[in-house]
């Protein structure tokens, strides 16, 4: 900035004897602002530069006009070196760096415009005052001051209401956001921009959503501690995107268990082997009398192979499962049990690859959960009669295949 130019600084303090309500009303009318806007844009940020790049005459004229309204203002050399003040939780400014000694107070912190590090203000020791001038000098000085004041009063520009209509460069209106120097807005945070880009990325790769949410929260905290940096819109957008991706990622359905690659091949029901038929035929008469009578076509189909129904069967929808013994012993107890599965009245296969023998593997229970899922409980037995403690659960699915319905075991 050219050193011949001046900047207009408003301190935020009122002149002695001024009523704050009247002065605020005058300034609000002169600036064309509401009272709330005046407090937010001017007094809560004072001391601050309200005009830059003025020639000395225009700057002095505006200082006189502001003081006539009852507020303290001064014209200072304009320069590129600007600083910000932080007083409590309020950031004020910017002001020329050379004016720190005028406006900083003990306990304030200051920061270079565009910087991120705050420094504690250290007051400069005040030099001893000079001795009073001689009486003759005082008299000459007073005469010169009165003459200068009289001459200046003749050259003052029109009152502020007329300047309000002219809107020329001498108007003391505070600059809008478009008039403020770009450096005064503060740099854009790269952290916030990176968080926003990551938020877009996690909409595709949602597994990264937890990490992106933490980074977005970190960006907001980073900007909260650095009020001069811009990018809060990016940080908020990053948080919204990552939170949405996290919700979608958590709400996705769990993978459904699929059947093993091996499928039971549908095969027709075959008659018992000759030795098995002989055992069944030679069963005592009381055993035949105790046999369960068939209740439907599926049961009668099983009896064609000389099998003995146990009476345990379940039906769900179009699926029917029945238990039958392929052989019995002399006490009318089954030597081997098998589960037979039917779909729409058609036999599609056995649930067990080998019949369960009570001596080694007991078919403890089975449950047809629905028309496509069968749960089988097997108990491993020892040499001691009735000692079957360890159990195994098997899940069998009824699946449609290319050649019809078939069975598959779920893992």
TrEMBL record:
Transmembrane segments: 191-224, 233-251
Alphabetically ordered keywords of this record: Membrane, Transmembrane, Transmembrane helix
Disordered: region residues: 145-183
Biased composition (Low complexity): 145-155, 162-171
Protein name: Glycosyl hydrolase family 98 putative carbohydrate-binding module domain-containing protein
Species name: Dyella halodurans
Lineage of producing organism: Bacteria, Pseudomonadati, Pseudomonadota, Gammaproteobacteria, Lysobacterales
């Amino acid at each position: 900035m050219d050193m011949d130019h001046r900047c207009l600084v408003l301190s935020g303090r009122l002149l002695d004897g001024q009523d704050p309500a009247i002065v605020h009303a005058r300034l609000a009318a002169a600036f064309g602002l509401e009272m709330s806007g005046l407090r937010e844009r001017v007094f809560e940020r004072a001391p601050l530069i309200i005009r830059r790049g003025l020639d000395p005459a225009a700057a002095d004229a505006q200082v006189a006009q502001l003081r006539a309204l009852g507020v303290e203002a001064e014209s200072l050399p304009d320069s590129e070196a600007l600083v910000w003040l932080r007083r409590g939780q309020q950031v004020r400014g910017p002001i020329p760096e050379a004016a720190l000694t005028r406006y900083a107070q003990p306990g304030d912190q200051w920061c270079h415009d565009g910087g991120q590090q705050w420094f504690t203000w250290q007051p400069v020791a005040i030099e001893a005052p000079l001795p009073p001038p001689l009486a003759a000098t005082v008299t000459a000085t007073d005469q010169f001051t009165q003459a200068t004041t009289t001459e200046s009063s003749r050259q003052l520009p029109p009152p502020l209401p007329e300047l309000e209509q002219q809107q020329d460069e001498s108007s003391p209106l505070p600059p809008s956001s478009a008039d403020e120097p770009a450096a005064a807005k503060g740099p854009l945070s790269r952290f916030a921009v990176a968080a926003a880009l990551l938020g877009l990325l996690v909409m595709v790769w949602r597994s990264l959503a937890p990490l992106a949410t933490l980074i977005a929260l970190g960006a907001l905290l980073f900007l909260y501690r650095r009020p001069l940096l811009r990018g809060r819109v990016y940080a908020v957008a990053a948080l919204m995107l990552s939170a949405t991706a996290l919700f979608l990622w958590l709400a996705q359905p769990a993978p459904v268990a699929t059947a093993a690659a091996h499928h039971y091949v549908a095969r027709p029901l075959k008659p018992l082997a000759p030795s098995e038929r002989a055992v069944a035929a030679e069963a005592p008469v009381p055993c035949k009398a105790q046999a369960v009578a068939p209740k439907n076509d599926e049961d009668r189909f099983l009896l064609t192979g000389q099998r003995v129904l146990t009476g345990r069967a379940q039906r769900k929808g179009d699926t029917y499962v029945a238990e039958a013994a392929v052989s019995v012993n002399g006490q009318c107890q089954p030597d081997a049990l098998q589960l037979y599965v039917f779909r729409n009245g058609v036999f599609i296969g056995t649930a067990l690859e080998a019949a369960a023998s009570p001596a080694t593997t007991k078919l403890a229970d089975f449950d047809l959960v629905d028309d496509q899922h069968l749960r089988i409980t097997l108990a491993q037995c020892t040499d001691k009669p009735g000692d079957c403690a360890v159990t195994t659960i098997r899940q069998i699915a009824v699946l449609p295949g290319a050649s019809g319905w078939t069975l598959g075991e779920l893992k």
